[in-house]
Amino acid sequence: MKVLFNDGHVDEIPQEEELHVIRHSAAHIMAQAIKRLYPEADFAYGPATDNGFYYDIDLPEGQKISEDDFPAIEAEMKKIVKENLKFETYELSREDAINHMEERGEKYKVEHIGDLDEDARITFYKQGEYVDMCVGPHLMYTKALKAFKLTGVSGAYWKGDSNNKMLTRINGVAFRNKDELTEYERLLAEAEKRDHRKIGKEMELFMMSEAGPGFPFWLPNGMRVRNALMQYWQEMQDKFGYEQVQTPIILSRSLWETSGHWDHYKENMYTTLIDDEDYAVKPMNCPGACLIYKSRPRSYRDLPLKLAEAGLDHRHELKGALHGLFRVREFTQDDAHLFITPEQITDQVTDTMHLITAYYQQFGFPYKVELSTRPEDSMGSDEDWERAEEGLKKALETMGVEYTLNPGDGAFYGPKIDFHLQDCLGRTWQCGTIQLDFQLPHNFQLEYVDSDGSKKQPIMIHRAGFGSFERFTGMLIEQYEGKFPTWLSPCQVKVLPVSEKTREYANEVASKLRDAGIRVKVDERDEKIGYKIREARSIDRVPYMLILGEKERDNVTVSVRDRATNETTERQLDEWLPELLAEIKERRG
């Protein structure tokens, strides 16, 4: 695809960059349409994003845009596309650019120019009567925009600062062709069907309350899922040689000053006064792990020291950014901190990768791996960084893992490996991470005595697999559409007596299952059996139903309805129960 660059030249771009250009051009075309329909509108930022595009708009008092207005805006966009306007570009000096924008009444663009570096090039793109300050590149003609759709409207502060004016953000999507848009709409409908907030409410897994925005309430069924997931997590920590710890939720300001969070992360932390001193609710668990390491002298023989913590953390998120279990203010981090010698980097990173990839294989998530290397604002010696990066590369190569190199995008305290999961809807989530850290061991003056008697500083590895239990649970709800595998299901077996005559037998069967460790419920309501079956299947989404009529009672059997096959077979309970227990123990599905 040929595009127009801001120096005026035209060239082909790689296929992976096409969507970005299409969406960026769609933002300009949308803005032009809105300007035609709302002549007094002022425009702020209008970029392409990973999933589409948006434009932030300042509307005159009394005017607003809602989703009801989308058909008119889309119709005007189609008109602009049909006009086949040519995209043109030009460059102005800073002074001329300011005058140009002032003449057009573009106050947000004028302010934006003031934020640019003194030597920045200031370029513009024009199609028809519409002009936008932009770095491009863009399509050649508006007719090249083949498929688009407006998707939502929300509020957004100018420059993301809550002290600034609230603007109207219009979101949209754009694709190469109508087939891609149709597929997007199919996935959108699937996403709505799988929405973890909707399923969570139906299955009574969790709830939110205005009494605590962003602080999830786990309901009984949700706790069943969470506890099963936590048990799996604990078993995996034991299998891979981690010690489990728990650090306090509230710690003193001096600790967060030592770690650097007080200076660099305070706006996202909740603070309180205790005994007239500043304390903070922890946003992360690593400083506490450093204190555990430092609690007694360490030798090279103690390393690696592998401390796992399912730590309860709190971070302040803007209320408008909160989203079910995906974006919360309170979450339990699947966390671990490894303290190692430089020579142990490759072995321990390899071992950690085996753990994280085992997680994703268990739940069927495909993933991609990214290695991020030393940024410009890094700390630590060249030797430390070279050894660390080489250790990570060697670990990836030892496992035969394909990875993308992301030069210069590591943390300032060390290089990292990130795991990007793809869910059933094609969305990507950054969950797992392995980060090497030279900074915190330095800040906390951590030491170990080496084999030659000298004191050395350990390297710290930050490791997460699920990310947070909250977000991962939300992902699992959508991945399984609430139909959890038996080992994870809140109710593993639902016993359905056909009538009052078989309730006593139903409770006897349930008691045997419960004694065997099965999560079981009995539906004793005076409802028709067909209704009970439909509810167990569509609302509770149970893996197995036991339908018990007089025949089953008299034969001392159970009719097992399997969710996977939707078939019902009559079985001896003592024959079927071991099969069920084996399925749960092996965590099949």
Describe the structure in your own words.
With 589 residues, this protein is an alpha+beta fold. It has 3 domains: 191 residues, 2-Layer Sandwich (Threonyl-tRNA Synthetase, Chain A, domain 2); 246 residues, BirA Bifunctional Protein, domain 2, CATH 3.30.930; 101 residues, 3-Layer(aba) Sandwich (Rossmann fold). The chain is 37% helix and 26% strand. The chain has 18 helices and 29 strands. The strands form 8 sheets. Strands 12-16-17-24-21-20-18-19 form an 8-stranded mixed β-sheet. It has a 5-stranded mixed β-sheet with strand order 26-25-27-28-29, sandwiched between helices. The protein has a 4-stranded antiparallel β-sheet with strand order 3-4-9-8. The longest helix is centred in the first third of the chain and has 20 residues. The protein is globular and about 90 Å long. The relative contact order is 0.08. Belongs to the class-II aminoacyl-tRNA synthetase family. This is Threonine--tRNA ligase. Its cofactor is Zn(2+). It is found in: Cytoplasm.
CATH architecture classification of the largest domain: 2-Layer Sandwich
Strand content: 25-35%
Query: Helix proportion of residues, in percent?
Result: 25-40%
User: Which structural class fits the helix and strand makeup?
Assistant: alpha+beta
Can you identify the CATH superfamily of the largest domain?
Answer: Bira Bifunctional Protein, Domain 2
**CATH class category of the largest domain:** Alpha Beta
Cα-based radius of gyration, to the nearest Å = 29 Å
Please tell me the overall pLDDT. 94
Mass-distribution shape: globular
Q: Alpha-carbon distance between the termini?
A: 43 Å
User: What is the fold named in CATH at topology level of the largest domain?
Assistant: BirA Bifunctional Protein, domain 2
Give a short account of the largest sheet. 8 strands, mixed
State the total count of DSSP E strands.
29
Q: How many domain units?
A: 3
In DSSP terms (H or I, runs of 4 or more residues), the helix count works out at 18
Spatially, the strands of the biggest sheet line up as 12-16-17-24-21-20-18-19
Low-confidence stretches: none
